[in-house]
């Protein structure tokens, strides 16, 4: 039951995210009043390429930081379980027991 609820929550959040993304896309697509502001932002980013690069790379850097955090957390849990003498959990990607 818990697993099904997690999947339904995951799917629901994806539906909400897709609706929001489509709404933002349609808003920007139909927003002729943003032309002046969009040109100003594009000119500013053209004059400051460092900011443009950092802005483009930020999601990747955040994803890497989160991955490192969860990786370290998993390694700490694995070491703690080994210290308690618990058997190693089976990995879904390998055939090892």
- Put simply, the count of helices is 3
Tally of structural domains: 1
How would you classify the helix and strand content by structural class? mainly alpha
Please give the alpha-carbon distance between the first and last residues: 27 Å
The geometry reads as elongated
Percentage of residues in DSSP E strands: under 5%
Low-confidence stretches: none
How many whole angstroms does the radius of gyration measure? 22 Å
**Helical residue percent band:** over 70%
Order of helical and strand elements: HHH
Q: How many strands appear in the DSSP assignment?
A: 0
Instruction: Give a short account of the largest sheet.
Output: none
Q: What is the average of the pLDDT values?
A: 85
Descriptive report:
This protein has helices at 2-30, 35-47, 49-83. By secondary structure, it is mainly α. The chain has one domain (2-28, 41-83). The radius of gyration is 22 Å and the shape is elongated.
Gist of the model:
With 97 residues, the protein is mostly helical. Helices cover 79% and strands 0% of the residues.
């Amino acid at each position: 039951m818990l697993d099904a609820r997690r999947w339904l929550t995951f799917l629901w959040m994806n539906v909400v995210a897709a609706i929001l993304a489509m709404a933002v896309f349609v808003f920007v697509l139909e927003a002729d009043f943003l032309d002046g502001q969009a040109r100003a932002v594009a000119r500013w980013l053209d004059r400051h390429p460092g900011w443009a690069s950092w802005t483009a790379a930020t999601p990747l850097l955040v994803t890497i930081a989160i991955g490192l955090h969860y990786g370290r957390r998993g390694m700490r849990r694995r070491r703690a379980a080994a210290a308690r003498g618990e058997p190693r959990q089976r990995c879904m990607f390998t055939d090892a027991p």
